[in-house]
């Protein structure tokens, strides 16, 4: 049975496969009906390309069984784990809803109370899992489902560890969720429950602001930001967020694990405390510790009032109290006015342009002219009877609002009155000619927008709109942002350190410390101890471009001595006067090391696209560049060299690994 095409079959004589729900690098998800219990279920089937990897299959099963032990109303339940006809599968609760990512994209950002409520639900799911010894490791809005009654259910518990094992093999698939993973995950360090707390903080940040704390050109740059920078406080982005809520989010997202909440329950307690404090105590007849009802003052008798008025010093005390009250009111007013002025007039707010009815290509220059950007990652498409296909039907922030400058505008674009039957192909990270050919084969038009990029190769597609999978009609124009130039930057030169006398490991550390890389490694016989570097190129104290390679020669030790002959060979001919001092025969030519081959296996990371581009560079030279179907799971790459080679692997334009392959 083919794991990618099970619709219409019956799995394990029990589960009737109805439709394919989604697919990734590790598994395919189906909606099915359980004939035994007559209920709908979701089934994840491990990819056929991975079934021969015993380690992945074992972890897939072990972790799924661990997840099956979790029983919580905020966790997608696991009903069954099994294997049939060579296919490993997990049977789970079928949840009819949308992902939290789709929910956020639809609304731009959530009301802070709803965001806190959602965070509490996610936190309760994590608390239950942590108590059972399971760490999710991949908390993100894409893995959280929202039902019609706004109940949240966290999915993919248990298989997160199996996915992590695959990403180690792939050399970088962990970066697929780089926006949400913790700094320790980004650097490959120790992870525990506090890593899930960091990811929950990022999810809260996105719910409250409609944007991610870190964004960059690629996954590597985002990971570096997490290791080196603190995010902008979410309250700076959304002034409606209470300070107490902002403090909770920023504490959860602390770079160092010891500075975060140590348990998710500590975070839940703070969230509930903020929500309870926001409730009107009189709504439920509850009096808080800081608010009291003021009892009605009974009318006093005239004679009692007169007696009181005659007490000495009373008038002076009343005047002093009155002055204090008036002074306090004035002070509060001054503070309020000053705060309002700082929060509003000091923000340099500008009016949002009206983009409704415009096409995306028309909206881009208008937004730029007014000091805004279009959030192309946040563009969504919906059916509309009012707006023609390709016209902007919704924008956030709305037209003519006054907001802080440089804010990104999210758009919803009309896909026409009826849904098209052509799915937009994924052409990102492909060369422009290939992208055009793919669009034309699909019956679609295109528009090219030139952009400058330091991370993408020239003539490669940086981004596309609409995104892959969007259903459109024939002839729809897809906007392609293409890298057509590189920023003009002076090449930074760094001093080459002295490597002679060091070991290979010591040299590697020295080079990395100054931004250089180890290049070709060759061995030669010498009087130096084996393993010691005897020469290098470029030479010490010279300067070399940052990121370039340094070749080294390592001592292979002394050659074995051959016994001298008892008698020298007879000299048949006296040496020529023209060659006085030279030997009688030419020295033997140095034999070139034989060309050797090694095969590297590149495992594809999990992702949404159907294809994956693999590019391999050895010692600065491209040796492989090919697009594969993600369902293939992996690719074998042959590396040829006469000496050790530094091999870099790029997946979809992002560098995922760098290693030295030894041939000696």
Report on this structure.
The strands form 10 sheets. A 6-stranded antiparallel β-sheet has the order 1-2-3-4-6-5, with helices on one face. Strands 11, 12, 13 and 15 form a 4-stranded mixed β-sheet that branches. The chain is α+β, with helices and mostly antiparallel strands. It is built from 15 helices and 31 strands. It catalyses: L-threonyl-[protein] + ATP = O-phospho-L-threonyl-[protein] + ADP + H(+); L-seryl-[protein] + ATP = O-phospho-L-seryl-[protein] + ADP + H(+). GO terms for molecular function: ATP binding; protein serine/threonine kinase activity.
Secondary-structure topology with pairs:
Elements: E1 10-11, E2 15-23, E3 27-34, E4 39-46, H1 54-68, E5 78-84, E6 87-93, E7 98-99, H2 100-107, H3 112-131, E8 144-146, E9 152-154, H4 159-170, H5 183-186, H6 193-209, H7 219-228, H8 234-237, H9 243-252, H10 264-278, H11 302-309, H12 314-344, E10 349-351, H13 360-369, E11 373-374, E12 380-382, E13 392-396, E14 402-404, E15 408-414, E16 422-423, H14 432-441, E17 445-452, E18 461-465, E19 471-472, E20 477-485, E21 493-495, H15 504-514, E22 517-524, E23 533-537, E24 543-545, E25 549-555, E26 596-603, E27 611-618, E28 621-629, E29 634-641, E30 645-651, E31 654-661
